[in-house]
């Protein structure tokens, strides 16, 4: 019990003012974080399967954020004996909840890919996910078009395995830190899995951000008409996707910031999309520019090959590949 003499000594403490200020600041920060998570629709997924038919949503093999991610100067291709050729894995002690197609758009980032796969395979296996990793690469020297190659990868993944029911589009430069950030599609809406990146001080920069790692079911992806095919260069295709999601009456969900944490592998920024502002202003064209119009894009699949840790899709496109859709820019 706090006696009167102890209380008097406490109130006369020369650091009392500083202590009170610190406590007030901590309370304000907590209130702000709670408010931002509410407005960002950030929540932890709940396991509604009470029949034990599937693997648990949060299996006992999870480690949280205990695994340290080390940015080595040189990285070799990792050896993961549990992975089948093509980057395929399924747990053998329970039935996986969903079948995941992990789609990684790629170009000239071999170091990033080696480092990501070094951690991603073990991360997914601790979660007891059934998955296949697809690395879709744009070849040639023409400006990068991330939207086209991700649409192509979605289509080819379904051609390879029609039972995929969750598609996770994963930037090659983001490594997940906490395996309680389960890689699973939210049946209510697309789920943005990477709200907190170290380069952005682990905070969600704005509520409509979808860049980094995004999970959609097949139905959701078709509903938003996939990615735009018209962004040549880096940037804005993610903001375009955010508008598609909103206009399709979905409210994007996310894990809380302390769970959806990622380390970014540093790199030089690519050439920015020169038409990004024009396209974003006219994002309502999305019904006429996306996965449903991929047959109007001139592209060639040069090769689909199963590597040890992933399935490699090589796509050849030129700057004229989207000429049939460019009437939408007028």
Automatic annotation (TrEMBL):
Its main location: membrane. It is an enzyme of class 2 (transferase). GO terms for molecular function: galactosyltransferase activity; N-acetyl-beta-glucosaminyl-derivative 4-beta-N-acetylgalactosaminyltransferase activity. Belongs to the glycosyltransferase 7 family. The chain crosses the membrane at residues 15-36. GO terms for cellular component: Golgi apparatus; membrane. It is a single-pass type II membrane protein. Coiled coil: none annotated. This is Beta-1,4-galactosyltransferase. It is found in: Membrane. InterPro entries: Galactosyl_T (IPR003859), Galactosyl_T_C (IPR027791), Galactosyl_T_N (IPR027995), Nucleotide-diphossugar_trans (IPR029044). SUPFAM superfamilies: Nucleotide-diphospho-sugar transferases. The keyword Transferase applies. Catalyses the transfer of galactose onto proteins or lipids.
């Amino acid at each position: 019990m706090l006696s009167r003499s102890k209380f008097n000594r406490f109130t006369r403490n020369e650091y009392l003012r500083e202590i009170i200020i610190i406590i007030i600041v901590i309370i304000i920060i907590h209130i702000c974080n709670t408010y931002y998570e509410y407005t960002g629709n950030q929540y932890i997924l709940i396991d509604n399967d009470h029949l034990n038919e599937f693997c648990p949503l949060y299996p006992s093999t999870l480690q949280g954020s205990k695994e340290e991610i080390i940015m080595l100067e040189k990285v070799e291709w990792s050896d993961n004996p549990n992975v089948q050729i093509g980057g395929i894995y399924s747990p053998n002690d329970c039935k996986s909840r969903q079948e995941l197609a992990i789609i990684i758009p790629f170009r000239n980032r071999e170091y990033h890919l080696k480092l990501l796969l070094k951690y991603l395979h073990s991360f997914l296996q601790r979660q007891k996910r059934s998955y296949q990793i697809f690395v879709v690469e744009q070849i040639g020297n023409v400006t990068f078009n991330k939207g086209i190659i991700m649409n192509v990868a979605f289509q080819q993944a379904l051609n390879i395995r029609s039972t995929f029911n969750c598609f996770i589009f994963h930037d090659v430069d983001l490594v997940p830190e906490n395996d309680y950030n389960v890689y699973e599609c939210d049946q209510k809406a697309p789920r943005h899995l990477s709200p907190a990146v170290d380069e952005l001080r682990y905070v969600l920069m704005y509520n409509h951000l979808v860049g980094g790692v995004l999970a959609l079911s097949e139905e959701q992806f078709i509903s938003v008409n996939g990615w735009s095919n018209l962004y040549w260069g880096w940037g804005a295709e993610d903001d375009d996707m955010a508008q598609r999601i909103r206009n399709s009456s979905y409210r994007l969900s996310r894990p809380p910031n302390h769970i959806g944490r990622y380390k970014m592998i540093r790199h030089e920024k690519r050439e920015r999309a020169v038409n990004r502002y024009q396209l974003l202003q006219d994002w309502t064209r999305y019904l006429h520019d996306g996965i449903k119009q991929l047959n109007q894009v001139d592209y060639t699949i040069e090769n689909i090959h199963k590597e040890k840790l992933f399935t490699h899709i090589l796509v050849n496109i030129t700057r004229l590949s989207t000429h049939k859709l460019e009437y939408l820019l007028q």
